[in-house]
């Protein structure tokens, strides 16, 4: 095989080398991103350790403390609270519905009481 033949790269070989180069570059990119991520996490871990272990930090890391913290966070930032007018209107509505149901149940109780008295032959 002459030098000119050896230096000629066939199209199939060229495609294989291109694929290999692409795979190698993506592999290198993944490695670099992984090292950047691990460096970031080690920085935050070092920052956490350098601050010391406060009571609040320890409480947030156990189950009960995490639950309380998540509940507070949800109530503070995710819940849409009603305005004063909406709360007032809903309260008035609840009081009115409760009064109407109470009156209705009183009437049913009064009617059943008298029906019972009639059936057993009372006064």
SSE topology:
Layout: H1 3-7, H2 11-51, H3 55-61, H4 63-78, H5 84-120
Helix pairs in contact: 3-4
Summarize the structure in words.
The protein is mainly α. It has helices spanning 3-7, 11-51, 55-61, 63-78, 84-120.
Can you describe this structure in just a few lines?
The protein is mainly alpha-helical and 123 residues long. It has 5 helices and no strands.
Largest sheet: none
If you average the pLDDT, what whole number results? 79
Rg estimate, integer Å = 38 Å
Q: Output the structural class.
A: mainly alpha
- Work out the strand percent: under 5%
Instruction: Assign an overall shape.
Output: elongated
Termini separation comes to 128 Å
According to DSSP, the number of beta strands is 0
SSE topology string: HHHHH
- Report the uncertain regions: none
Number of helical segments with 4 or more residues: 5
How much helix, percentage-wise, in residues?
over 70%
What labels describe this entry?
5 helices, 86% helix, elongated, mainly alpha, 123 residues
């Amino acid at each position: 095989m002459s030098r000119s033949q050896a230096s000629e790269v066939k199209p199939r070989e060229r495609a294989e080398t291109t694929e290999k180069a692409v795979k190698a570059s993506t592999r290198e990119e993944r490695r670099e991103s992984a090292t950047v991520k691990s460096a970031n996490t080690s920085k935050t871990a070092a920052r956490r350790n350098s601050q010391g272990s406060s009571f609040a930090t320890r409480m947030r890391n156990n189950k009960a403390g995490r639950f309380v913290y998540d509940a507070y966070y949800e109530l503070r930032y995710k819940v849409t609270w009603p305005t004063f007018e909406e709360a007032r209107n809903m309260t008035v509505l609840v009081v009115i519905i409760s009064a109407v149901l109470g009156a209705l149940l009183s009437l049913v109780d009064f009617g059943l009481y008298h029906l019972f008295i009639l059936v057993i032959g009372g006064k």
